[in-house]
Every structure is written in structure tokens, then in C-alpha cells.
Task: structure prediction
Amino acid sequence: MTRISVKVDGTAYEDEVEPRLLLIHYLRDRLGLTGTPIGCDTSNCGACTVDLDGESVKSCSVLAVQADGSEVTTVQGLATNGSRHPLQKAFHEQHGLQCGYCTPGMIMAARDLLAENPDPTPDEVRHALEGNLCRCTGYQNIVRAVLAAARQDTPARVPAQEAAL
Ligand code: FES
Ligand code: FES
Result:
């Protein structure tokens, strides 16, 4: 077992984990943060995407021990004071989801995009989300949702900025 310290959605945790434990299993099974789903076993679907120290990563392709000393944000950590994140609002308003299984990963990948490129073109949105699969929507409304969130003033993912919403 290996001891890790990690901050997840603003809460600090210290845990003993097996070196082979994947970050997604740590989040879901140990911390109970089941808002981040597992959609495949091949690192293909992107449903498990979270933010790890400012980069969106597929948490099924990262070991929990690799997150030692890091800050993780999941889709469950995006709302502030009961208000949904602009991307969460935009996905709702633009009908960017059907079953919703891909949505946490889509939102986390889109958040990473908007932090680096606050005014993306539709093609840039599609390119940024190419690692995230959706089998329901045909992607059109997902792209619309990201563009709608980008048109707002505060889509960035930086925690301090989110806290000011
Ligand atoms: S569950 Fe991680 S990419 Fe599919
Ligand atoms: S909304 Fe069902 S997989 Fe995307």
C-alpha cells in the first residue's frame, strides 16, 4: 500500500491505496464521487475525464498514486454556492445531453478548452472533444452548448474565477 495526499473538489484526503488502483476507482469507490462515470475499459470514451492540476485527463488512465500531491476537480466540484457552472447551465439549456452518461467528461474536457481558448470556433470545439464519445446526441447540441458557454463572461475553469461567480 502507498500513502497519498490529494485534494478532490476542494477537500483534502489522505489514504492508503494499492499502487495499481486507478484514479477513477479511487474517486468512485473510495471517495464515493460517482458523478464521474466509467464508460469503457479501453481509455476510449472520455466519460471519466477529470481535471488534474489544470489538465483534463481520463481518470481511468491515471493511477491514484500519480495524483499524490495533486488537486483533482470532478464535475461534482464545479457548482459554486448551489449555482451550476456556466457549462452545466449551457448543456442543460442547449439540450447537450440525452442519457447524460458522457456529459461529465464532455463538460470537463470543454472546461479545459475554454480555459485555454475562451472563444473557440465550432471546429475547435469538435477537435477538443474528439476524445469524448457520445452515442446519443450526434454531437451538434454538445458543440452548441460549449459555444453558448463560451459566449458568457465567466466560463473559465480557474477555481478562483469560479468562486467569484
Ligand atoms: S472510462 Fe475512461 S475513457 Fe472510458
Ligand atoms: S448523452 Fe448519452 S452518451 Fe452522450
